[in-house]
Specification:
Length: 62
């Protein structure tokens, strides 16, 4: 199969670009090294996210 565009990585930058290109009628190939996440893999609970250590690291461990 032939494509018009090949995008390496499907992150926050490439995702919207790929979406717009597809809407414009281009055939887009995305090569992503990470997992193939589904809608169920994400959640929108901001309180729970803020409780994660990623956002509230224990400064005494730095
Ligand atoms: C914990 C955390 C929270 C954040 N919260 C916010 C927020 O609330 N608001 C906000 O605006 N920004 C936030 N950011 C920043 C935001 O995530 C980044 O600015 C944005 O993701 C950068 O986009 P990008 O497309 O450059 O890279 P990325 O989104 O990192 O995408 C790069 C993609 O390329 C893939 N890739 C890399 N190498 C290869 C390869 N060799 N072959 C194939 N695929 C490859 C990666 O797997 C990845 O999917 C947060 C970042 C982190 C880490």
């Amino acid at each position: 199969m032939k494509y018009d565009v090949c995008i390496i990585g499907s992150g926050a930058g490439a995702g919207p670009i790929a979406y717009e290109l597809c809407l414009a009628g281009y055939k887009v190939l995305i090569l992503e090294k990470g997992g193939f996440y589904q809608k169920e893999d994400f959640f929108k609970d901001e309180v729970a996210v803020c409780r994660r250590s990623t956002f509230t690291p224990r400064l005494d461990l730095e």
